[in-house]
């Protein structure tokens, strides 16, 4: 399985390098259209190789997608955290009740009592 992963990564690297070599032409990337830049009085422009523009767009899209999904799943993470706190609280309560039940008993009998299921647990 590891070799398949390495083969796929090598194939991806070959494709990306060949795409970069095929798209080395410098393009001008502008912040705003010329008409809007004329109204505002400034425009930022940068000359970059085309492959950097393409790969940069892909990376920016991935980052925006990951952040969007992380924000969208907030309510699910919050609900899971609340349930986790509730489970830990109930486990502490069960341990406390077991200690109260076996208080004053022999330790071996208390362990055996916990090991044998009650009538409600058998169902």
TrEMBL record:
Report which superkingdom the organism of origin falls in. Answer: Bacteria
The segment(s) forming the Lipopolysaccharide assembly protein A domain are 47-94
Please give the coiled-coil regions recorded for this protein: 80-107
Question: InterPro entries annotated for this entry?
Answer: LapA_dom
Quote the Pfam families the UniProt record gives: LapA_dom
Organism for this UniProt entry? Pontibaca salina
- Alphabetized UniProt keyword annotations: Cell membrane, Coiled coil, Membrane, Transmembrane, Transmembrane helix
Transmembrane annotation, as ranges: 46-71
One GO cellular component term, please give it.
Answer: plasma membrane
Q: What is this protein called?
A: LapA family protein
């Amino acid at each position: 399985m590891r070799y398949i992963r390495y083969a796929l990564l090598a194939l991806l690297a070959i494709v990306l390098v060949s795409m970069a070599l095929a798209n080395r032409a410098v393009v001008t990337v502008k912040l705003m259209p010329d008409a809007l830049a004329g109204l505002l009085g400034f425009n930022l422009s940068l000359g970059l190789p085309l492959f950097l523009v393409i790969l940069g767009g892909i990376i920016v899209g991935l980052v925006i997608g990951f952040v969007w999904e992380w924000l969208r799943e907030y309510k699910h993470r919050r609900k899971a955290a609340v349930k986790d706190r509730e489970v830990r609280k109930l486990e502490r309560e069960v341990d406390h009740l077991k200690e109260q039940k076996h208080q004053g008993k022999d330790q071996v009998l208390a362990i055996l009592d916990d090991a044998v299921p009650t009538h409600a647990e058998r169902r």
